[in-house]
Amino acid sequence: MRIGIPKGLLYYRYHAFFETFFSKLGSEIIVSEQTNKDILDMGVQFCVDEACLPVKVFHGHAASIKDRCDYLIIPRIMSVCIKEYICPKFCGLPEMIIHSIPRVPKVSVEPLYMRNEKELFRWCLSSGSVVTKDSAVIKRAFISAVTAQKKGRAGINEQGRKLTVMLAGHPYIIYDDYLNMGIINKLRAKGIGIITEESVGDGETREEVKKLVKKPFWTFQRRVFGAACVLLRQKLIDGIIYLSSFACGIDSVIIDLIRHFIGNFPMLVIKLDEHTGEAGVDTRVEAFIDMLERRVFNENYNPSPRECVFSGQNPV
Amino acid sequence: MRITIPHLGNVYLAVKILFDSLGLDYVIPPLNSRDALYLGSKYSPEEICLPFKLMVGNYIAGVENGADTVLLVGSCGPCRFGEYPELQIRIMKQLGYNVDFIVMDPVQSIGLNELFKRIRKVGSASKKSALSKIGSVLLAFTAMRLIDEIEASAHAIAGYETSPGEAKKLLSSCKKEVFSCSDPVKAVNILNRYRDRFKTIPADYSKKPLKIAVMGEIYTVIEPFSNLYIEDILMDMRVSTSRRLTPTWWVKDMLLKTIRLNSRELLKASNEFLPLYIGGHARECIGEAVLAAKQQMDGAIQIFPMGCMPEIVSKSILPSITQKKKLPVLSLVVDEMTGEAGYRTRIEAFLDLLERRREHVFIGC
Question: In whole angstroms, what is the distance from residue B221 CA to residue A67 CA?
């Protein structure tokens, strides 16, 4: 049995889990290649026009391996935290793939709730049954997959360089070097330290979002917004670079929320789509870094009064 | 407390009847127009969907006309609609308006106590007794139902009437008359009278007009300005249209959702293609398409705002329905930059296609 795992969307967060689980079940695993031009083109060709770039790329990944595997893992991730959701497109992802790409093999369609291990195991039971009927094997594979996942979760946290920026956005944009045009390496080459939202604890972000009028119902919104506020208050960062994809519904809310709270703290928003040119992005990042350098190292720099009073309170 | 509301189709008529009968002070903002859209898109986040922008435009108009409280419904689902109040409250404050927001979130997510607290906040401004308050709500709901019914029959009869344009004229005079009437009971009587008048419109049922289902994202389907008055355009072209998503349907759906008995027919129809709720009204859209095919409609038009996450999923499923159920579907994406000429051309081309398809020998093969 050959199991296909497209390298897109939340693969970047949960790859350890999926790969360990299915390899422990004794099946051959086929992971699609790193995103490249062909995969992007295929995604654009198959996917519905209005979708965002990561979803299009995911279609490309699925299409690139569909002929080489018997079973395609398209995780229909409904929710990863209690009373929180993720983007609605994830909930309909298997349908999008089935109805957009011709001749797909069998696809995993069970909803996947990751709110606790019990729910996760339920998904594993039904998806694992495609490979083996032995529930003891599934259980063993599940346990080692969970351990692998817990070990693998890191994020980036580089402090102590001349400048530190928070690289905010969804993991499938931050860690996909093709989509973001290698921004992590570019920043590192300039001597910039990077912090991502994973370095802030869950509890801290939960505490932080209490200042909002309404409890956020997207996990990403809580995490990214909360982490940005926490890092800013702890004065760990000199700027925020937000990598977002065009027409991302969740980012349209988060970016505006962050803007409302940070006052005139520097934030660069980079919108990515299938037409994004690398030179333009480079120029903007360079200009942003130049600005940060002058802002931090210029002796005559006087922070504005608004910045001085900023203490994590609602400025509104 | 002077309350204002954002527009959604004809809801303002029912809300007016409700507030009149409760004796509350209110401001109905002017109907959606270029001005509302201009103001809204000026102050809203760039990439947020169209309903948000129009609503901000409505608030500003309402507050400029003296309102100090905004009443709106909310959600806590995966769709962006649930985050509207969060951003809108901030935008209004940033603009220097001192407004209070009362958001009616679904009971499942905020609990009964909180919901009652919010309802009391509105209700306490009225001096009527508790019983007559309930009566007012029922009266408003009756009005809403009647308006939806009248509108539906106007859209259905448009293809059959013997003197074209009569239904449209009657509909607009009905809205005008109800809006200018400040006595709630009289207003409901006017609606009743109009409902009967629609039954007497001379129509020739031997005609075979095109029948089209209008479906998609609930706000853009119901609010005529946001879809560039598509139902009026279709009425002028003598096409019979039907639409399931109405404010009445929404209220019923919300109430029945608590006991999981909402819109059984639609959900059953959608099971084959989309068996799960994914937020927004994507599942309903799929169900409507399947039902439209079952009822042998000639085609369906899906409307959604640019970037609408649930409808993107349903748009990617619709080609399969077209193929399997032989239902032509036109997807129209609207935002603040939609041009009218291009929009009309696409609708006309779609109607031409449907007409020719009908005459084709191999139809349905």
Answer: 40
Confidence at residue B364, expressed as pLDDT on a 0 to 100 scale: 55
Tens digits of per-residue pLDDT, B283-306? 999 999 999 999 999 999 999 999
Task: Report the Cα–Cα distance between both ends of chain B, in Å, rounded.
Answer: 62
Distance from CA of B246 to the nearest CA of A (A): 23
Inter-chain CB proximity A252 and B48 less than 8 Å: yes
What is the Cα–Cα distance from A224 to A205, expressed in whole angstroms? Answer: 8
C-alpha to C-alpha distance for A106 and A89, rounded to whole angstroms? 20
What confidence score (pLDDT) does residue A302 get? 56
Closest-CA residue of chain A to B48: A252
Looking at the structure, tell me whether residues B137 and B119 fall in a common domain.
no
- Asked whether residue B111 falls in the same domain as residue B232, the answer is no
What is the per-residue pLDDT across B10-26, written as a single tens digit (0 to 9) for each? 999 999 999 999 999 99
Report d(CA B310, CA B306) in Å as an integer: 11
Helix/strand/coil percentages in chain B, nearest 5:
55, 10, 30
Cross-chain Cβ contact B309/A89 below 8 Å: yes
Tell whether B51 and B151 lie within a shared domain.
no
Reported pTM: 0.91
Count of alpha carbons within 13 angstroms of residue A169, beta-carbon side: 30
Q: Print the domain residue range for B114.
A: 2-126
Mean pLDDT of chain B: 90
Which contacts qualify for B35-39: CB closer than 8 Å, 24 or more apart? B35/B61, B36/B60, B36/B61, B36/B225, B37/B225, B37/B336
Q: Do B276 and A217 touch (CB under 8 A)?
A: no
Q: Which CATH class is domain A163-309?
A: alpha beta
In this complex, is the C-beta atom of A252 within 8 Å of any C-beta atom belonging to chain B?
Answer: yes
A2-152 has CATH 3.30.70 classification: no
Same domain, B78 and B194: no
What are the mean pLDDT values of chain A's consecutive 10-residue runs (316 residues total)? 90 90 90 93 92 93 93 90 87 92 90 89 88 88 90 81 91 91 92 91 90 88 92 90 91 90 90 88 93 79 52 44
> Is the distance from CB of B50 to CB of B335 less than 8 angstroms?
yes
Residue B121 near residue B86 (C-beta atoms within 8 A): no
Residues 304-333 of B with CB under 8 A from A: 306-310, 312-317, 319-320, 333
The segment(s) of chain A belonging to CATH 3.40.50 are 2-152, 163-309
Chain A residue nearest residue B94, CA to CA: A316
Q: How far is CA A184 from CA A39, A224, A226, A254, B44, in A?
A: 21, 18, 22, 21, 31
Euclidean distance between CA atoms B30 and A209, whole angstroms: 36
- CA proximity to A94, closest of A133, A62, A50, A119: A62
